[in-house]
Specification:
Blueprint: E1 7-10, H1 16-27, E2 31-36, H2 39-49, E3 52-55, H3 61-75, E4 80-83, H4 98-126, E5 129-134, H5 147-167, E6 172-179, H6 203-215, E7 224-227
Parallel strand pairs: 1-2, 1-4, 2-3, 4-5, 5-6, 6-7
Helix pairs in contact: 1-6, 3-4, 4-5
């Protein structure tokens, strides 16, 4: 697809991968809306980027509907949804609670699915569209303390494959990007960005992967793309 004048919706766009992706896509001519749960932070990020701010929580179905109403009122057509919003909880197995799973799955699994569901309604009518899900290398290999987060990303990976099978006949491309560790605010209680490290990925590398996947001619798509740091040691 051509990015110039494309209308793109990014969840969790106030920091990290979402912010870097919005920045890169806007610089390449796209019209971008970002969502975030914190109104002040969302509006500040959108002002910096030149994006449309939408204060919304993907774990809330009412907020999801509000997001799509606001987006379509502003832009009309939707070309791409980037499911970036995500949270994590990391605990040993013997300390886990049902609430840990519920909290993370509401965002990483159910929220992503309901955002994609609303986008699919638009895309099927258009007979065209793009969904990019931001997964994780944890989706393909669990790790100590990763029962909740890794399993949520494995579920997102499985849903991506299901949506690919369902939506290809409607000319909808569904793609999964799996980053390894990225130095963002993800996992920080204070939601402050971590300092970049030369041996770790930044949001910019994942933004580049997203941009590249979107820019492939519409006749083809990349079902799944994993991005590693070259030498993380």
């Amino acid at each position: 697809m051509k990015l110039n004048n494309a209308n793109i919706l990014i969840t969790g766009g106030t920091l990290g991968i979402g912010f870097a992706t919005a920045d890169l896509l806007i610089k390449n001519g796209a019209n971008v809306a970002i969502t975030g749960r914190d109104e002040k932070r969302t509006h500040k990020a959108a002002h910096t980027l030149g994006a449309l701010p939408i204060t919304a929580d993907v774990a809330d179905i009412g907020d999801i509907r509000h997001t799509f109403r606001t987006f379509t009122q502003e832009f009309g057509k939707l070309d791409a949804l980037i499911n970036n919003a995500g949270i994590g909880i990391y605990k040993p197995l013997d300390e886990l609670t049902p609430e840990d799973f519920e909290q993370v799955y509401r965002v990483n699994v159910i929220g992503a699915a309901m955002m994609a569901s609303e986008a699919a309604k638009i895309f099927k009518k258009q007979n065209y569209g793009n969904i990019i899900n931001i997964g994780s290398t944890a989706a393909t290999k669990g790790y100590e303390g990763g029962s909740v987060y890794a399993s949520s990303k494995a579920a997102l990976r499985s849903m991506t494959q299901s949506w690919q099978a369902e939506l290809r006949k409607h000319n909808v491309r569904v793609m999964l990007i799996n980053p390894s560790e990225v130095t963002t605010a993800f996992g920080n209680q204070n939601r402050e960005e971590r300092h970049a490290q030369p041996n770790k990925l930044r949001g910019q590398e994942i933004a580049w992967a997203i941009k590249s996947a979107l820019e492939m001619d519409n006749r083809g798509f990349i079902p799944e793309l994993t991005v590693w740091a070259t030498n993380p040691f």
